[in-house]
Amino acid sequence: MSLVSEGADLTKPLRAGLAEPSLAGVEDYVALLKPRVMSLVVFTALVGLLVAPGHVHPVIGFTALLCIAIGAGASGALNMWYDADIDAVMTRTSRRPIPAGRVRPDEALAFGSTLAVGSVLVFGVLVNWFAAALLAFTIAFYVFIYTMWLKRSTPQNIVIGGAAGAFPPMVGWAAVTGDVSLAPVLMFLIIFLWTPPHFWALSLLRADDYARAGVPMLPVVAGPDETRKQILLYTLVLAPTGIAPTLFGFAGLLYGAIALVCGAVMLLLAWRVYRDRTGPAAPASARKLFAFSLLYVFVLFAALLVDNGLARLGFGL
Amino acid sequence: MSDDDGIVLTEEQKRRRRARSIAIALSLGALVLLVYLVTVVKLGPDVLRRPL
Hints:
Chain A is mostly helical. Chain A has helices at about 25-30, 35-50, 60-80, 85-90, 105-125, 130-150, 155-165, 170-175, 180-205, 205-215, 220, 225-245, 255-275, 280-310.
Protein backbone atom coordinates (compact mmCIF):
# COMPACT_ATOMS: atom_id res chain seq x y z
CA MET A 1 0.00 0.00 0.00
CA SER A 2 1.50 3.31 -1.01
CA LEU A 3 1.08 6.16 1.40
CA VAL A 4 1.49 8.63 -1.43
CA SER A 5 -1.57 7.24 -3.13
CA GLU A 6 -3.59 7.95 0.00
CA GLY A 7 -3.71 11.64 -0.76
CA ALA A 8 -0.34 13.25 -0.14
CA ASP A 9 1.00 14.78 -3.33
CA LEU A 10 4.76 14.73 -2.85
CA THR A 11 5.49 15.40 -6.51
CA LYS A 12 4.73 19.12 -6.26
CA PRO A 13 7.90 21.14 -5.69
CA LEU A 14 7.86 22.88 -2.34
CA ARG A 15 8.68 26.48 -1.73
CA ALA A 16 12.19 26.98 -0.37
CA GLY A 17 12.25 26.99 3.41
CA LEU A 18 9.16 24.84 3.79
CA ALA A 19 9.55 21.31 5.06
CA GLU A 20 7.60 18.51 3.44
CA PRO A 21 4.54 17.52 5.47
CA SER A 22 5.28 14.46 7.54
CA LEU A 23 3.54 11.21 6.74
CA ALA A 24 4.85 9.49 9.85
CA GLY A 25 2.34 7.66 11.97
CA VAL A 26 2.79 6.84 15.66
CA GLU A 27 3.56 3.23 14.72
CA ASP A 28 6.49 4.45 12.58
CA TYR A 29 8.01 6.21 15.58
CA VAL A 30 7.51 3.05 17.63
CA ALA A 31 9.32 1.08 14.89
CA LEU A 32 12.24 3.54 15.12
CA LEU A 33 12.72 2.42 18.74
CA LYS A 34 13.48 -1.17 17.58
CA PRO A 35 11.03 -2.71 20.08
CA ARG A 36 12.36 -6.26 19.69
CA VAL A 37 15.92 -5.24 20.56
CA MET A 38 14.46 -3.15 23.38
CA SER A 39 12.76 -6.22 24.88
CA LEU A 40 16.14 -7.97 25.39
CA VAL A 41 17.66 -4.77 26.79
CA VAL A 42 14.79 -4.27 29.23
CA PHE A 43 14.82 -7.89 30.33
CA THR A 44 18.59 -8.04 31.02
CA ALA A 45 18.45 -4.62 32.73
CA LEU A 46 15.55 -5.86 34.88
CA VAL A 47 17.61 -8.87 35.95
CA GLY A 48 20.60 -6.62 36.74
CA LEU A 49 18.32 -4.40 38.81
CA LEU A 50 16.62 -7.23 40.72
CA VAL A 51 19.72 -9.30 41.54
CA ALA A 52 21.68 -6.27 42.76
CA PRO A 53 22.15 -6.22 46.55
CA GLY A 54 20.00 -3.77 48.44
CA HIS A 55 16.51 -2.52 47.94
CA VAL A 56 15.03 -0.18 45.41
CA HIS A 57 11.53 1.28 45.63
CA PRO A 58 9.34 -0.18 42.85
CA VAL A 59 8.62 3.30 41.45
CA ILE A 60 12.35 4.12 41.27
CA GLY A 61 13.04 0.68 39.75
CA PHE A 62 10.32 1.22 37.16
CA THR A 63 11.74 4.67 36.36
CA ALA A 64 15.20 3.17 35.86
CA LEU A 65 13.87 0.50 33.49
CA LEU A 66 11.82 3.06 31.57
CA CYS A 67 14.87 5.29 31.11
CA ILE A 68 17.01 2.32 30.00
CA ALA A 69 14.27 1.26 27.54
CA ILE A 70 13.94 4.78 26.12
CA GLY A 71 17.71 5.17 25.94
CA ALA A 72 17.92 1.88 24.01
CA GLY A 73 15.08 3.03 21.74
CA ALA A 74 16.85 6.34 21.13
CA SER A 75 19.99 4.42 20.10
CA GLY A 76 17.86 2.41 17.67
CA ALA A 77 16.34 5.56 16.16
CA LEU A 78 19.76 7.22 15.76
CA ASN A 79 21.10 4.00 14.23
CA MET A 80 18.24 3.95 11.71
CA TRP A 81 18.86 7.62 10.92
CA TYR A 82 22.55 7.07 10.19
CA ASP A 83 22.15 3.71 8.45
CA ALA A 84 19.19 4.60 6.23
CA ASP A 85 21.37 4.18 3.11
CA ILE A 86 22.40 0.66 4.16
CA ASP A 87 18.89 -0.26 5.29
CA ALA A 88 17.46 0.75 1.89
CA VAL A 89 19.50 -1.88 0.00
CA MET A 90 19.13 -4.74 2.47
CA THR A 91 16.05 -6.96 2.14
CA ARG A 92 15.70 -7.40 5.92
CA THR A 93 15.65 -3.67 6.61
CA SER A 94 14.25 -2.04 3.45
CA ARG A 95 10.77 -1.71 4.98
CA ARG A 96 12.02 0.31 7.97
CA PRO A 97 10.33 3.73 8.33
CA ILE A 98 13.12 5.87 6.79
CA PRO A 99 13.98 3.78 3.67
CA ALA A 100 10.25 3.18 3.16
CA GLY A 101 9.78 6.99 3.02
CA ARG A 102 7.35 7.23 5.93
CA VAL A 103 9.72 9.08 8.29
CA ARG A 104 12.13 11.78 7.13
CA PRO A 105 15.77 11.40 8.28
CA ASP A 106 15.66 14.72 10.17
CA GLU A 107 12.55 13.58 12.03
CA ALA A 108 14.35 10.40 13.14
CA LEU A 109 17.43 12.39 14.17
CA ALA A 110 15.38 14.84 16.24
CA PHE A 111 13.34 12.01 17.79
CA GLY A 112 16.42 9.92 18.68
CA SER A 113 18.46 12.85 20.04
CA THR A 114 15.60 14.14 22.18
CA LEU A 115 14.93 10.73 23.69
CA ALA A 116 18.66 10.04 24.24
CA VAL A 117 19.26 13.29 26.13
CA GLY A 118 15.88 13.09 27.90
CA SER A 119 16.33 9.51 29.12
CA VAL A 120 19.79 10.27 30.57
CA LEU A 121 18.66 13.49 32.29
CA VAL A 122 15.51 11.93 33.78
CA PHE A 123 17.56 8.89 34.88
CA GLY A 124 20.11 11.15 36.58
CA VAL A 125 17.60 13.37 38.33
CA LEU A 126 15.16 10.65 39.43
CA VAL A 127 17.44 7.62 40.00
CA ASN A 128 21.20 8.29 40.23
CA TRP A 129 23.85 10.03 38.16
CA PHE A 130 26.34 7.15 38.05
CA ALA A 131 23.82 4.86 36.35
CA ALA A 132 22.76 7.77 34.11
CA ALA A 133 26.39 8.28 33.05
CA LEU A 134 26.64 4.56 32.23
CA LEU A 135 23.46 4.83 30.13
CA ALA A 136 24.85 7.89 28.34
CA PHE A 137 28.08 5.99 27.64
CA THR A 138 26.08 3.01 26.30
CA ILE A 139 24.06 5.20 23.93
CA ALA A 140 27.18 7.07 22.77
CA PHE A 141 29.06 3.79 22.27
CA TYR A 142 26.27 2.33 20.14
CA VAL A 143 25.74 5.45 18.05
CA PHE A 144 29.27 6.85 17.62
CA ILE A 145 31.57 3.83 18.05
CA TYR A 146 29.43 1.04 16.55
CA THR A 147 27.06 2.72 14.08
CA MET A 148 29.18 5.57 12.76
CA TRP A 149 32.63 4.02 12.95
CA LEU A 150 32.96 0.24 13.33
CA LYS A 151 29.96 -1.05 11.38
CA ARG A 152 31.24 0.20 8.03
CA SER A 153 34.95 -0.22 8.64
CA THR A 154 35.81 -3.58 10.24
CA PRO A 155 34.55 -7.19 10.38
CA GLN A 156 35.06 -6.92 14.16
CA ASN A 157 32.13 -4.43 14.16
CA ILE A 158 29.69 -6.56 16.12
CA VAL A 159 32.38 -7.92 18.47
CA ILE A 160 33.32 -4.49 19.81
CA GLY A 161 29.90 -2.96 19.15
CA GLY A 162 28.35 -5.83 21.11
CA ALA A 163 29.54 -4.07 24.27
CA ALA A 164 26.68 -1.59 23.82
CA GLY A 165 24.15 -4.42 24.09
CA ALA A 166 26.00 -5.88 27.07
CA PHE A 167 25.84 -2.77 29.28
CA PRO A 168 22.09 -2.78 30.23
CA PRO A 169 22.35 -5.30 33.14
CA MET A 170 25.25 -3.23 34.46
CA VAL A 171 23.14 -0.06 34.18
CA GLY A 172 20.26 -1.84 35.97
CA TRP A 173 22.64 -2.94 38.76
CA ALA A 174 24.11 0.57 39.06
CA ALA A 175 20.59 2.01 39.35
CA VAL A 176 20.27 0.15 42.68
CA THR A 177 23.80 0.21 44.09
CA GLY A 178 25.28 3.33 42.53
CA ASP A 179 28.42 1.38 41.60
CA VAL A 180 29.67 -1.62 39.61
CA SER A 181 31.21 -4.83 40.99
CA LEU A 182 32.24 -8.26 39.67
CA ALA A 183 28.69 -9.64 39.30
CA PRO A 184 27.48 -7.06 36.73
CA VAL A 185 30.82 -7.42 34.92
CA LEU A 186 30.09 -11.16 34.56
CA MET A 187 26.61 -10.39 33.20
CA PHE A 188 28.24 -7.94 30.79
CA LEU A 189 30.73 -10.62 29.67
CA ILE A 190 27.99 -13.19 29.01
CA ILE A 191 26.16 -10.87 26.59
CA PHE A 192 29.41 -9.53 25.13
CA LEU A 193 30.68 -13.05 24.27
CA TRP A 194 27.22 -14.19 23.17
CA THR A 195 26.87 -11.40 20.57
CA PRO A 196 29.41 -12.65 17.97
CA PRO A 197 28.05 -16.24 17.63
CA HIS A 198 24.49 -14.84 17.61
CA PHE A 199 25.06 -12.20 14.90
CA TRP A 200 27.50 -14.21 12.83
CA ALA A 201 24.98 -17.08 12.64
CA LEU A 202 22.52 -14.53 11.21
CA SER A 203 25.13 -12.97 8.91
CA LEU A 204 25.97 -16.41 7.47
CA LEU A 205 22.36 -16.51 6.29
CA ARG A 206 22.34 -12.89 5.07
CA ALA A 207 25.87 -12.60 3.63
CA ASP A 208 24.57 -11.53 0.19
CA ASP A 209 22.51 -8.76 1.76
CA TYR A 210 25.49 -7.42 3.71
CA ALA A 211 27.76 -7.67 0.65
CA ARG A 212 25.28 -5.68 -1.46
CA ALA A 213 25.10 -2.99 1.22
CA GLY A 214 28.90 -2.88 1.52
CA VAL A 215 28.87 -3.78 5.22
CA PRO A 216 32.12 -5.65 6.04
CA MET A 217 30.54 -8.46 8.06
CA LEU A 218 32.87 -11.39 8.75
CA PRO A 219 31.35 -13.81 6.17
CA VAL A 220 31.68 -11.10 3.48
CA VAL A 221 35.29 -10.19 4.29
CA ALA A 222 36.82 -13.43 5.59
CA GLY A 223 34.43 -15.97 4.10
CA PRO A 224 31.85 -18.32 5.64
CA ASP A 225 34.38 -20.95 6.79
CA GLU A 226 36.41 -18.45 8.83
CA THR A 227 33.11 -17.18 10.29
CA ARG A 228 32.17 -20.74 11.29
CA LYS A 229 35.54 -21.12 13.03
CA GLN A 230 35.12 -17.82 14.88
CA ILE A 231 31.58 -18.78 15.94
CA LEU A 232 32.92 -22.01 17.45
CA LEU A 233 35.84 -20.24 19.18
CA TYR A 234 33.60 -17.59 20.75
CA THR A 235 31.10 -20.25 21.87
CA LEU A 236 33.98 -22.19 23.48
CA VAL A 237 34.70 -19.09 25.59
CA LEU A 238 31.02 -18.24 26.12
CA ALA A 239 29.98 -21.62 27.59
CA PRO A 240 32.34 -21.48 30.63
CA THR A 241 31.70 -17.74 31.06
CA GLY A 242 27.99 -18.58 31.33
CA ILE A 243 28.76 -20.71 34.40
CA ALA A 244 31.10 -18.10 35.92
CA PRO A 245 28.43 -16.47 38.17
CA THR A 246 28.15 -19.80 40.03
CA LEU A 247 31.92 -20.38 40.07
CA PHE A 248 32.47 -16.92 41.58
CA GLY A 249 29.74 -17.48 44.16
CA PHE A 250 27.40 -14.87 42.81
CA ALA A 251 24.76 -17.45 41.74
CA GLY A 252 23.78 -20.87 43.06
CA LEU A 253 23.87 -24.40 41.69
CA LEU A 254 20.45 -24.10 40.05
CA TYR A 255 21.73 -21.35 37.80
CA GLY A 256 25.02 -23.22 37.28
CA ALA A 257 23.21 -26.38 36.14
CA ILE A 258 20.99 -24.47 33.70
CA ALA A 259 23.97 -22.50 32.33
CA LEU A 260 25.93 -25.74 31.93
CA VAL A 261 23.16 -27.43 29.92
CA CYS A 262 22.46 -24.35 27.79
CA GLY A 263 26.19 -23.85 27.19
CA ALA A 264 26.52 -27.49 26.08
CA VAL A 265 23.62 -27.07 23.62
CA MET A 266 25.17 -23.83 22.27
CA LEU A 267 28.47 -25.66 21.80
CA LEU A 268 26.78 -28.57 20.04
CA LEU A 269 24.94 -26.20 17.66
CA ALA A 270 28.10 -24.14 17.05
CA TRP A 271 29.97 -27.37 16.28
CA ARG A 272 27.27 -28.29 13.75
CA VAL A 273 27.60 -24.87 12.11
CA TYR A 274 31.36 -25.49 11.91
CA ARG A 275 30.83 -29.00 10.46
CA ASP A 276 27.96 -28.37 7.99
CA ARG A 277 29.56 -26.22 5.31
CA THR A 278 27.67 -27.24 2.19
CA GLY A 279 24.21 -28.21 1.04
CA PRO A 280 20.91 -27.52 2.81
CA ALA A 281 22.45 -28.54 6.17
CA ALA A 282 24.67 -25.42 6.22
CA PRO A 283 21.93 -22.73 6.43
CA ALA A 284 19.78 -25.04 8.58
CA SER A 285 22.56 -25.33 11.19
CA ALA A 286 23.16 -21.56 11.20
CA ARG A 287 19.41 -20.96 11.60
CA LYS A 288 19.22 -23.35 14.55
CA LEU A 289 22.16 -21.72 16.29
CA PHE A 290 20.68 -18.25 15.74
CA ALA A 291 17.30 -19.32 17.14
CA PHE A 292 18.81 -21.10 20.15
CA SER A 293 21.21 -18.24 20.90
CA LEU A 294 18.21 -15.96 21.46
CA LEU A 295 16.75 -18.49 23.85
CA TYR A 296 20.16 -18.97 25.54
CA VAL A 297 20.50 -15.41 26.76
CA PHE A 298 16.86 -15.21 27.89
CA VAL A 299 17.07 -18.53 29.77
CA LEU A 300 20.38 -17.68 31.46
CA PHE A 301 19.16 -14.32 32.73
CA ALA A 302 15.79 -15.78 33.78
CA ALA A 303 17.69 -18.53 35.67
CA LEU A 304 19.85 -15.88 37.34
CA LEU A 305 16.70 -14.09 38.47
CA VAL A 306 15.00 -17.24 39.80
CA ASP A 307 18.19 -18.45 41.49
CA ASN A 308 18.69 -15.08 43.17
CA GLY A 309 15.03 -14.90 44.20
CA LEU A 310 15.19 -18.36 45.80
CA ALA A 311 18.38 -17.44 47.64
CA ARG A 312 16.76 -14.28 49.02
CA LEU A 313 13.81 -16.37 50.23
CA GLY A 314 16.20 -18.81 51.91
CA PHE A 315 15.81 -21.62 49.38
CA GLY A 316 19.13 -21.11 47.60
CA LEU A 317 21.05 -24.15 46.37
CA MET B 1 -2.01 35.04 3.80
CA SER B 2 -3.82 32.90 1.27
CA ASP B 3 -3.78 29.11 1.13
CA ASP B 4 -1.44 29.22 -1.86
CA ASP B 5 1.37 30.58 0.28
CA GLY B 6 1.71 27.50 2.44
CA ILE B 7 1.32 23.77 2.42
CA VAL B 8 -2.22 22.48 2.49
CA LEU B 9 -2.29 19.20 4.38
CA THR B 10 -4.31 16.32 3.03
CA GLU B 11 -6.83 14.60 5.30
CA GLU B 12 -4.41 11.70 5.75
CA GLN B 13 -1.60 14.03 6.79
CA LYS B 14 -3.94 15.81 9.22
CA ARG B 15 -5.03 12.48 10.70
CA ARG B 16 -1.43 11.38 11.20
CA ARG B 17 -0.41 14.73 12.69
CA ARG B 18 -3.32 14.49 15.13
CA ALA B 19 -2.22 10.97 16.12
CA ARG B 20 1.35 12.20 16.69
CA SER B 21 0.12 15.16 18.74
CA ILE B 22 -1.96 12.88 20.95
CA ALA B 23 1.02 10.54 21.44
CA ILE B 24 3.25 13.49 22.46
CA ALA B 25 0.57 14.77 24.87
CA LEU B 26 0.20 11.35 26.48
CA SER B 27 4.00 10.98 26.79
CA LEU B 28 4.36 14.39 28.44
CA GLY B 29 1.46 13.60 30.77
CA ALA B 30 3.15 10.32 31.73
CA LEU B 31 6.42 12.16 32.41
CA VAL B 32 4.65 14.65 34.71
CA LEU B 33 2.97 11.77 36.56
CA LEU B 34 6.30 9.94 36.87
CA VAL B 35 8.08 12.99 38.32
CA TYR B 36 5.19 13.48 40.77
CA LEU B 37 5.30 9.83 41.90
CA VAL B 38 9.09 9.77 42.29
CA THR B 39 8.94 13.02 44.26
CA VAL B 40 6.39 11.51 46.65
CA VAL B 41 8.49 8.32 46.98
CA LYS B 42 11.72 10.24 47.62
CA LEU B 43 10.23 12.64 50.13
CA GLY B 44 8.18 9.94 51.84
CA PRO B 45 5.47 10.46 54.44
CA ASP B 46 7.60 13.04 56.29
CA VAL B 47 6.87 15.59 53.60
CA LEU B 48 4.06 17.09 55.70
CA ARG B 49 6.06 16.98 58.96
CA ARG B 50 8.65 19.67 58.49
CA PRO B 51 9.84 22.35 60.92
CA LEU B 52 8.09 25.65 60.29
